[in-house]
């Protein structure tokens, strides 16, 4: 059986025909990919508010994003920044895939996104009005702008996509869960699915909520703030942004005459048991199920895009799971998210987009910043610069705070232009 309960080998191939990227590495596929290859970091001191007095001052901010230029004016004041990002990325993914929703039956198109913190900045401003000026000053749109499903709803409304719509809330792992769900929707009759996720919690309220995990880096040096699998690993830098992907059946893509970045081959998810249970983390079993769902063997996987939590304990656990499934040092491992920070709901979709770009270009991006891999991990971590290979198949891993764990298997396609 597959990870979603369907017989293995019975799925229609799911093709990714469009990418929309809004990330600290740049807006658009071309800028993001150029930054990844060059190892150009998007981390820096937080500028959206004064972080003085907070233990975390470094984060990945999306450069040059102006909501009024990317989002219809009527929606800017009604929605949060995380929805602005998703609306812009969805528009870009549709254009990249040369897909016009107006030309397709509205109930054949679906939207499924991931969300983590919801509209924290919008909610913070409304709470400020409440406590400073009174309840009469709280806007009516507070009731929906903060909501996890706001992005799915706004994308659906804007593009007339009235098929199955939903949102997955599983922190960093949620982006893979959304893409797994998109493949399932294609199996049940949808023709196009906009899927992925974005996050935007770089505001005092949002950052304070993140601090409760105890996993954020306190380094004030952007070059040292996020070093997964490094001997100096001491937490991660947060970030904002993410990616939206247009997923459709291969048959539908052929009928429209468009090429794909690649295919979603397999997916699985699980949840870590309580630490007090004595049972091991589920990552290794989740990876095995995702690979089995893809209908391939572990030896067919050419690269792993790691979750890369950035804390010694979680890095060791991930390395152990990778070695258990693939063999110690057998498969290259990379974490280009060191350029952006961890984007929560937006992180895994961006990793999938990066993996598809890498596979179609025949290159494995490196893990910038990591100069001294921690001893004893046993993984082949790609550092120092991109590695030219003939890689065709990748596994993308994601773990969310509290135990959410997911894995997605993708295969490169025939689209090599990264100019969108």
From TrEMBL:
InterPro entries: Beta-ketoacyl_synthase (IPR000794), Ketoacyl_synth_C (IPR014031), Ketoacyl_synth_N (IPR014030), PKS_Beta-ketoAc_synthase_dom (IPR020841), Thiolase-like (IPR016039). CDD domains: CLF. One of its GO terms (molecular function) is 3-oxoacyl-[acyl-carrier-protein] synthase activity. Pfam families: ketoacyl-synt, Ketoacyl-synt_C. Keywords: Acyltransferase, Transferase. Residues 11-412 form the Ketosynthase family 3 (KS3) domain. GO terms for biological process: fatty acid biosynthetic process. PANTHER family: POLYKETIDE BETA-KETOACYL SYNTHASE 2-RELATED (PTHR11712:SF322), POLYKETIDE SYNTHASE-RELATED (PTHR11712). Belongs to the thiolase-like superfamily. Beta-ketoacyl-ACP synthases family. This is Putative ketosynthase beta GrhB. It comes from Streptomyces sp. JP95.
